[in-house]
Specification:
The chain has three domains: about 5-150, GAF domain (Beta-Lactamase, 2-Layer Sandwich); about 195-325, Alpha-Beta Plaits; about 330-430, PucR C-terminal helix-turn-helix domain (Arc Repressor Mutant, subunit A, Orthogonal Bundle), CATH 1.10.10. It contains 16 helices and ten strands. About 55% of the residues lie in helices and about 15% in strands. The radius of gyration is 26 Å and the shape is globular. Strands 2-1-5-4-3 form a five-stranded antiparallel beta sheet, sandwiched between helices.
């Protein structure tokens, strides 16, 4: 007579073989444990969930957010980080209380899914006390999940090698390799590459393991619902190809928001590392990728930034102008102070950022509604700030020449920071002495 453990093993094995995967396992557990079940990968990206009590989970659909955000309290909330640290230290289940501030109304037990003593995923069971039979069910499911994780890892490695081979051929410009790899990618992974796309290089300053960076980028892509191809090309660099879909064309503002969201997510995952994203040209065919790679690499290598702020998203098309401007450094400090000096002093005195508001307003082609959404303020608040900025600076924001001067001054100020104003302050101190 079969034991219950063997029955559960058989049932879960059939699910694994039949391709039910994570969703099949969480549905099975929800039915047997009469509880909500959630499976996350090592970066807390949801792989599957099953509802028993539908009020347990909040609505966390990031696609509906007005601004893209990587919403992961496991990285920034000290209370939850403590439990995550305990999981990694002990590799044993941890009980989490309910988290009403995040809309989660039930306590849970988090079971680490480990391979070679490293956590690869988390099984969340929204229940506290288990019977002996329920423990057998959970342990059986954990064994099945370890098998699934091993399969997923192998699939990721194989798919990653295929994508990486294609990316390298695109960056080298070898036509024979490109055509061969395009066919392999299309047949094996069902990916259509040559839609319109933006080429970005991601660099992590510390020697992060290759699979760790690639895994992080994949999870960010999934969480933020980004249409992109990702792969690591070295120990500390990865490629991010942001693609258009078949219906809409890529808009530069949307791409900028996406890359900024990716940057913020990487900073959350790797808080002790310096993160830079270099962005090359928009690509329309495979001949564009070699140039786009070179431009993105040049953006990463740009040394015009102050050392302490060598992070963020850097666009090559902006650097072409900056390289010219920064060659004439003796002229431009006076230009920047003349345009932004009064605004800079007001920002410091009142602890506000009128310069940032103007920059966002100009970036959105002077569209109040769009700029206010990015700044997370009411349109009337932005109108007030712009009127205040005009009064303080004496500039007219509707004048085309003034807008160009402001854009140039703000670009220079962002690349050189307080240096433009510190030199003047030091001279004034010497004069007063």
């Amino acid at each position: 007579m079969l034991r219950k453990k063997d029955v559960y093993n058989d049932a879960l094995l059939k699910m694994t073989i039949n391709g039910s995967g994570y969703q099949g396992i969480v549905d099975f557990l929800a039915q047997k444990l009469r509880a909500d079940i959630l499976i996350e990968n090592e970066f807390f990206c949801v792989l599957a969930r099953s509802y028993f009590n539908k009020s347990t989970f909040p609505n966390t659909d990031t696609s509906k957010n007005k601004k893209m955000k990587f919403l992961k309290p496991q990285y920034f909330d000290p209370k939850i980080k403590e439990y995550v640290t305990m999981l990694h230290r002990t590799l044993r289940p941890v009980e989490l209380p309910e988290l009403p501030e995040y809309g989660i109304k039930e306590p849970r037990v988090v079971f680490p899914i480990t391979i070679k003593n490293k956590i690869k995923a988390y099984l969340n069971v929204f229940k506290k006390d288990f019977t002996n039979e329920e423990i057998i069910v959970i342990n059986t499911a954990l064994n099945s999940l370890m098998l699934l994780e091993t399969i997923r890892h192998v699939q990721t490695v194989i798919g990653g090698r295929i994508i990486k081979s294609l990316i390298f051929s695109l960056m080298s410009g070898d036509e024979n390799d490109i055509n061969s790899n395009i066919n392999i990618v299309k047949k094996t992974l069902n990916i259509e590459l040559f839609q319109e796309s933006f080429f970005a290089l991601v660099k992590i300053s510390n020697a992060i393991r290759k699979q760790c960076l690639e895994g992080a980028l994949r999870s960010i892509r999934s969480d933020l619902n980004i249409n992109a191809i990702v792969t690591a090309i070295s120990e500390d660099q990865g490629v991010l190809l942001i693609k258009s879909d078949d219906i809409t064309k890529l808009k530069s503002v949307a791409v900028s928001e996406t890359l900024q969201a990716v940057f913020e997510a990487l900073k959350m995952i790797f808080p002790d590392s310096r993160v830079k994203i270099g962005v090359g040209r928009q690509c329309f065919n495979h001949q564009d990728y070699k140039l786009a790679f070179k431009e993105a690499n040049n953006a990463l290598s740009f040394t015009g930034l102050p050392k302490e702020s060598e992070e963020g998203v850097i666009y090559y098309h902006s650097l072409r102008l900056m390289e010219v401007l920064l060659q004439t450094q003796t002229i431009f400090p006076g230009f920047v102070r003349g345009i932004l000096g009064k605004l800079h002093n007001y920002d410091i005195e009142k602890n506000i950022n009128l310069i940032e508001s103007i920059e966002c307003y100009l970036k959105h082609d002077c569209n109040i509604q769009s700029a206010a959404r990015e700044l997370f303020i009411h349109p009337n608040t932005l109108r007030y700030r712009l009127e205040r900025a005009e009064k303080i600076s004496g500039l007219t924001l509707t004048d085309n020449d003034t807008k160009l001067e402001l854009q140039l001054a703000i670009k220079l100020y962002k690349y050189q920071g307080e240096n433009f104003f510190e030199s003047r302050q030091k001279r004034e101190c010497k004069i007063s002495v």
